[in-house]
Design a protein that fits this description.
Methylamine Dehydrogenase, Chain H, extended, 5-stranded antiparallel beta sheet, alpha+beta, Rossmann fold
């Protein structure tokens, strides 16, 4: 059954003049017929007309409107909004997508923008291209020179979009005039009296011919290569995502990001090491980069990547490596190869751990032994562990722990590296059975950190208001002496200790609060007794 209401909005600020009438329908079946018999300036359309909240009904109606009624503007509204539904609606031809509860100001702004663009003469491809003289008479395009029909079509679009509040994305190669177009939009907008602010994203600082060679959308972000790294672009923000961040790739393995391939859980990155470095393919899972392929020779350059989903069997990652085609199978129905019992493993793998300094880089340590909790280890299915310490870290020299780990579930072996500050571990897994991999569950490093040794001395001194030194110099007044020690302790002053004892002489020290004990007091208030205090080596 059709339900309809008519209502009007007098003097609406949208600029279409007079009284604006609205027809409201709750039966989607009558809308198409109504649009054939009456002219509509705008359709505000809900996405759901029954208990189904998937939005399918709304998308079907939107496609019908687009197929039968061309360019009539449509704004979609739903209480069950999602990014996926919004993207699908925009792809189907909606002009905007709003979720309930909406902001009235946002709704009115959307209506005004959509009607302003629609009222300016139809779509860019269907309307007549104005002559240059007509465009110059209506707009300020002084800095934009040219009369090519495609260029005039761009100027026409600039002139129509500039007075609206619509967001504008300008794309084009370097040097094609994107900034001039942005300035023209500003000059012809309602903000023309305000400053035109340019925001430098910083990408110009490393202008290279390979920039932008690879670009993909993944998880609502745009990713593109820039120099030897990857930039994430989202909502006007640009973030560097590596892989040159932190420690970066090892020496001899760096290169240009030549290809990007999005998959549901990974973004694959092709690293082109060019002719001198070794190329590779990395998988990024938003927590770190994992190498999944390394070229067999330094001049074998990774050029293209393509993921192939194979329903019912394993997915494949295809790689173009210097003209050769390489394919890599992935586990079936899982990203964890251990969950695919039929998966065939490589015979060797390397895992290099981050540097370990126990959050105390400058403290000396004893790295005693490394225990390994594992599965499947036996003769022929083994783990070899190597390490670097201090100045060796980052270099090519590795020290191998004596003996291989070939016993599961637990085995420990000595390292015995004392007077060290840092260590980096590398695990090499090897198997002679492609069906059975070595599984490392937990490496346990036993180490001991030595904090710097500091001496301290407990001092007990006799004090007397009338005492003198062996040189005949009068001792300090006991009260003045106590005040001096108290002030030095409260302010943590560094003092110099002088003594006839060699172990105490010429030491930088700090003192703790002193304690005085009075033995006697004379009629003038002068006293004798003892002062006890603790001296610590600074």
């Amino acid at each position: 059954m059709q339900t309809a209401r008519k209502w009007s909005l007098d003097g609406w600020r949208g600029g279409i003049g007079g009284t604006t009438h609205f027809d409201e329908f709750t039966d989607a079946r009558v809308i198409s017929g109504l649009l054939r018999s009456e002219r509509a300036d705008l359709v505000l359309q809900d996405m759901n007309f029954s208990r189904d909240t998937s939005g399918r009904e709304g998308l079907d109606l939107l496609r019908t409107i687009r197929d039968e009624h061309g360019a009539v503007p449509v704004i979609l509204i739903t209480a069950w909004g999602s990014i996926g539904l919004a993207v699908e609606g925009i792809k189907a031809g909606a002009n905007d997508f709003l979720t309930k509860p909406w902001s009235n100001a946002h709704l009115m702004q959307s209506i005004e923008t959509v009607l302003s663009l629609a009222g300016s003469g139809g779509t860019t491809t269907s309307r007549r291209i104005p002559r240059r003289s007509e465009l110059d008479a209506a707009h300020d395009f002084g800095a934009l020179i040219g009369e090519d029909p495609e260029f005039l079509r761009v100027l026409d679009l600039v002139g129509r979009v500039a007075p609206t509040e619509a967001s504008v994305l300008i794309v084009g190669e370097s040097g094609t005039g994107k900034e001039l177009v942005a300035e023209a939009i500003h000059r012809n907008s309602k903000r023309s009296e305000r400053p035109f602010v340019k925001v430098n994203l910083g990408l110009e600082s490393m202008a290279e011919g390979t920039n932008g060679l690879a670009a993909i959308p993944w998880k609502l972000h745009l990713y593109m290569n820039w120099s030897h790294s990857i930039e994430q672009i989202y909502s006007g923000n640009v973030l560097d995502m590596g892989p040159w961040m932190h420690a970066g790739l090892p020496a001899g393995r760096t290169g240009v990001v030549s290809a990007l391939e999005p998959v549901h859980a990974f973004m694959f990155c092709g690293i082109d090491g060019e002719v001198s470095n070794t190329s590779s393919v990395l998988a990024w899972n938003e927590r770190g980069y994992h190498e999944v392929f390394r070229a067999w020779e330094p001049d074998r350059r990774v050029q293209f990547l393509k993921w192939q989903a194979c329903p019912g069997t394993r997915a494949r990652l295809w790689m173009s490596v210097d003209g050769d085609i390489v394919v890599q199978e992935w586990p079936k129905f899982t990203l964890n190869s251990l969950n695919d019992s039929t998966f065939v493993y490589h015979h060797e793998c390397y895992v290099t751990q981050a540097t370990i300094d126990m959050s105390a880089r400058n403290i000396r340590k004893l790295f005693k032994e490394l225990a390994l909790q594992s599965e499947n280890l036996e003769q022929g299915i083994e783990v070899i562990i190597r390490y670097q310490v201090d100045g060796e870290i980052g270099g090519t020299v590795w020290n191998e722990i004596a003996g291989t780990y070939a016993t599961s579930p637990y085995e420990e072996r000595a390292i015995d590296q004392g007077d060290r500050k840092q260590i980096r571990l590398q695990y090499i897994g090897r198997t002679d059975d492609a069906d059975v991999p070595p599984v490392i569950l937990t490496p346990i490093l036993e180490a001991f950190a030595r904090t710097p040794g500091k001496y301290q001395w407990a001092i007990v001194t006799e004090t007397d208001s009338y005492a003198t030194t062996e040189m005949g110099v009068r001792d300090p007044d006991p009260d003045e002496f106590l005040e001096f020690l108290e002030e030095a302790a409260q302010q943590a002053q560094e003092l110099k200790l002088t003594s006839i004892l060699k172990r105490l002489d010429d030491k930088a020290v700090i003192v703790e609060l002193p304690r005085g004990s009075i033995a006697s007091v004379d009629p003038d208030g002068r006293w004798t007794g003892q002062v006890e205090f603790l001296i610590r080596e600074a």
